[in-house]
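Quick one, tokens below:
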């Protein structure tokens, strides 16, 4: 049985969710960002207990098919942003990855999240750029290339539009501000 878990966005989150699933006596077949596959079918009582325990640590067990699809889109965008190889167009990637028409995905995402998939992907790209600026020695040119921008100027322009400052100014800050991925 496949479960979708909202806000499970890092290795520590995965570990915490796995611990909760196992504490419920469930056999975890696989677990990754946003989803877990278990061997058993959940009873109503198990589902409620699991949902409560996950909620207590900031996660949400998604049951509604629309919410599940929106979470799958969110996770796929995050994976697309962090692709090491050359990226396909986001619309093509999402359509292929989720086996749905992009216009359907886009409409649903905008309705539920109140932001377009494109804007959401830009926010994620900028957060990843911030991470790379803070924790790596990569130049702005290298970061622009890694994130799939057409040029360093395009990255700088988008970065300034979102943050109000250039990547260079951001890198020079003593305590740069970052937004947790699950808050986007």
């Amino acid at each position: 049985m496949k479960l979708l878990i909202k806000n499970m966005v890092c290795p520590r989150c995965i570990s915490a969710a796995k611990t909760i699933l196992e504490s419920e006596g469930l056999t975890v077949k696989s677990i990754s960002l946003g989803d877990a596959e278990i061997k058993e079918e959940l009873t109503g009582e198990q589902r409620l207990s699991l949902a409560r325990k996950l909620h207590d640590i900031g996660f949400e067990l998604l049951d509604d098919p629309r919410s599940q699809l929106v979470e799958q889109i969110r996770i796929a965008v995050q994976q697309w942003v962090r692709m090491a190889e050359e990226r396909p167009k986001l619309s093509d990637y999402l359509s292929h990855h989720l086996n749905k028409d992009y216009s359907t995905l886009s409409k649903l995402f905008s309705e539920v999240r109140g932001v377009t998939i494109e804007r959401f992907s830009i926010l994620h790209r900028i957060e990843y750029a911030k991470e790379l600026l803070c924790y790596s020695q990569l130049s702005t040119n290298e970061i622009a290339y890694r994130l799939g921008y057409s040029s360093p100027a395009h990255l700088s322009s988008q970065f300034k539009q979102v943050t109000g400052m250039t990547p260079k100014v951001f890198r020079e800050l003593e305590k740069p501000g970052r937004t947790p991925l699950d808050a986007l």
